[in-house]
């Protein structure tokens, strides 16, 4: 009776392990470990292997394809922690047609909380300190410019930043050449 009980436990454990292994539909794919700019060559340190259950509509890069990915160029900016897809690799196509990337200085206190790469924002021109504010009329106040944050970099210990923004090409010169200071507010479409 003891031998039969032990044998039944071993058979049940083996059957459970076999069912569990076959039920695991996860596959090994490549994920991005740190942010990669568009046009940058992908290095070994930029990738890691993760196990996921893939969706049929997403062409993820399998872990076995790492040798083809290393040395390839990122077509678009890649966010840290994102899964790598085949469409993100190839010759650089950044910025997209009809858009431009501009960098603007932003003083301490003029950058909204939560402004990180990928966030949609409004770039609002404001008068420099000591300058008179424009009269409150619809024609005097410059319109804010819609943009997407590409990068935020601190410039000094005083809280100033340089913010790289993706804007419509028609707005690029207006944002980059603004005479006053800029304020950046988080926006929802």
Main attributes?
two-stranded antiparallel ribbon; 3 helices; alpha+beta; 5-stranded antiparallel β-sheet; 189 residues; elongated; 27% strand
Please characterize this protein's 3D structure.
This protein has helices at 2-23, 66-69, 169-176, and strands spanning 27-32, 47-52, 99-106, 120-126, 145-154, 161-168, 181-186. The N and C termini lie far apart (71 Å). The protein contains three helices and seven strands, in the order αββαββββαβ. A hairpin with a 6-residue loop joins strand 5 (145-154) and strand 6.
Give the topology.
Elements: H1 2-23, E1 27-32, E2 47-52, H2 66-69, E3 99-106, E4 120-126, E5 145-154, E6 161-168, H3 169-176, E7 181-186
Antiparallel strand pairs: 1-2, 3-6, 4-5, 4-7, 5-6
Helix/strand structural class: alpha+beta
Low-confidence stretches: none
Largest beta-sheet characterization: 5 strands, antiparallel
Radius of gyration based on Cα positions? 25 Å
- Biggest sheet strand order reads 3-6-5-4-7
Order of helices and strands: HEEHEEEEHE
Strand content: 25-35%
Helix content: 10-25%
Shape: elongated
């Amino acid at each position: 009776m003891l031998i039969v009980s032990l044998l039944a436990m071993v058979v049940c454990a083996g059957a459970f392990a076999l069912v569990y292994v076959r039920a695991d539909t996860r596959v090994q794919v490549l994920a991005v470990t740190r942010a990669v700019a568009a046009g940058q060559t992908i290095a070994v340190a930029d990738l890691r292997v993760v196990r996921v259950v893939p969706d049929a509509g997403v062409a993820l890069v399998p872990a076995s394809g790492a040798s083809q990915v290393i040395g390839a160029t990122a077509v678009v900016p890649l966010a840290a922690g994102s899964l790598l897809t085949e469409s993100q690799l190839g010759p650089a196509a950044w910025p997209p047609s009809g858009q431009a990337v501009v960098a603007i200085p932003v003083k301490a206190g003029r950058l909204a909380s939560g402004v990180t790469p990928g966030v949609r924002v409004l770039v609002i021109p404001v008068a420099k300190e000591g300058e008179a504010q424009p009269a409150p009329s619809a024609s005097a106040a410059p319109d804010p410019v819609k943009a997407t944050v590409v990068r935020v970099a601190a410039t000094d210990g005083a809280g100033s930043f340089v913010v790289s923004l993706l804007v419509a090409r028609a707005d690029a010169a207006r944002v980059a050449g603004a005479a006053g200071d800029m304020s950046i507010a988080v926006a929802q479409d």
